[in-house]
Amino acid sequence: MREFSLPYGKVSLSFSLPDDVNVYEIEPNAVNPLPNVKEEIMRSLKSLDMIVRAGRKVAIVADDITRPTPTREILPPLLDYLNDKGVRDDDITLLVALGTHRPMKQQELVDKYGEAMDRVEVIQPDFRDPEKLVKVGVMPNGSPIEVNEEIERADIAIGVGMIVPHHVSGFSGGSKIILPGISGEKTVGEMHLLSARLRRSFLGIEKNQVRDLMDIVAERAKLRGLINVVVDGTGNVTWIGAGTVSEVFREGVREARKVYEVKTPSNLDLVIASSYPADIEFWQAHKSLYPADMVLREGGTLILLTPCPEGVARTHPEVLELARLAPEEIDKKVRSGLVSDPVGAANSMVWSKIRSRIKVVLVSEGISEQEARSLGFGWYGDLQGAIDREISKFEKPRVGVMRNAPELLPNIK
């Protein structure tokens, strides 16, 4: 027997595979981290000179606790830079790009944003509060573009985030900091439904209809500057870029591919994947489904190892009623106005599409067997038991062991 281990929250879990099984280990590429992150941040900020003017009101839109962006290292140099350009701390607002996630706790805010908490006003937008939203335009389909009201008070917005492959928009980063970052529920819902209706996944497709929509919304929301980073599989920064949105995003995608685009086999029978670092709830961990779906054969099985201490989806409980349905049935309910959560419905549609092609089983302490069944997935109480049971269903199985699954972009051989 051969021994393996995968991260599970803050610990690792070990498991064994038979010697006669073909095993392919799939993980991020090794890329040298930056030798001095602070110096690189300071150097890159000069690219914002064409955007920042003295006396302007600036909204900094930064990603939340679900992303490993080293935001507390980025913000102090950014604030000092803005001060040097004639923008006072009193004229700067930090908007937390929660999207449809839960609000961050006070200690999480301190850990994530550091000294910025004492220098500027920090606002956590509520995507479901219509009184905190402003309409800044319309989408191509006529739906309103609604974003947090603080954008109306700002002259420009500067985004701070990270770039990894992403199933909805091809890659994270860029204009995604606005949509869904600080957009209203209807606007976010339209974006997610567009993605779900078009494909199971846009993973790794840089130019697509969803990204086009994000760019439109970000332009209307005054996003003029961007600071994006790429980190490796352990959270070390490998690249930092600052400047205009399109330039930073384009270069960041190239750098993200160096870390996360990995050569992989296809038509695997079984994939054992860890949801690290997207572990907090299944709403994050489900990103593991899409790279696994790319490498598994029709009828293959994914065993997803994910702790999910906050359960399935704290802000989207309706997925427990929708996800087990067929995607066409979910979409029919959406179009008939029978769904109160369009974002949850969109993700449920995609999970259902994947479930119709592969079998998904969860190994999780935070998700009960009943909840897994409600999502249309299987469930096991221990990892080795899941592996022994599922691998026995294949003759001469080809097995993938996938580390950092939520971030990977398989490049099929």
Description of the structure:
The protein is an alpha/beta fold and 413 residues long. The chain folds into two domains: 2-28 and 265-412, 2-enoyl-CoA Hydratase, Chain A, domain 1; 37-259, LarA, N-terminal domain (Rossmann fold, 3-Layer(aba) Sandwich). 32% of the residues lie in helices and 27% in strands.
Helix-strand layout with pairing:
Blueprint: E1 2-8, E2 11-17, E3 22-26, H1 37-45, E4 58-63, H2 71-84, E5 92-97, H3 106-113, H4 116-119, E6 121-123, E7 133-138, E8 144-148, H5 150-153, E9 156-162, E10 165-166, E11 170-171, H6 185-198, H7 209-220, E12 223-231, E13 237-243, H8 245-260, E14 261-264, E15 268-274, H9 282-285, H10 289-295, E16 296-305, H11 319-322, H12 327-335, H13 342-355, E17 359-363, H14 369-374, E18 378-380, H15 383-391, E19 398-402, E20 409-412
Parallel strand pairs: 3-19, 4-5, 4-9, 5-6, 9-12, 14-20, 15-16, 15-19, 16-17, 17-18
Antiparallel strand pairs: 1-2, 7-8, 10-11, 12-13
Helix pairs in contact: 1-2, 6-7, 6-13, 12-13
Strand-residue fraction? 25-35%
Shape: globular
The CATH class of the largest domain is: Alpha Beta
The CATH architecture of the largest domain can be given as 3-Layer(aba) Sandwich
User: What structural class is derived from the secondary structure elements?
Assistant: alpha/beta
First-last Cα distance: 27 Å
pLDDT < 50 stretches: none
CATH level-3 fold name of the largest domain = Rossmann fold
CATH superfamily of the largest domain: LarA, N-terminal domain
Total number of helices: 15
Question: What's the rounded overall pLDDT mean?
Answer: 97
Largest sheet: 6 strands, parallel
Q: What portion of residues is helical?
A: 25-40%
Q: Please state how the strands of the largest beta sheet are arranged side by side.
A: 3-19-15-16-17-18
Radius of gyration: 21 Å
Number of domains: 2
Count the E strands.
20
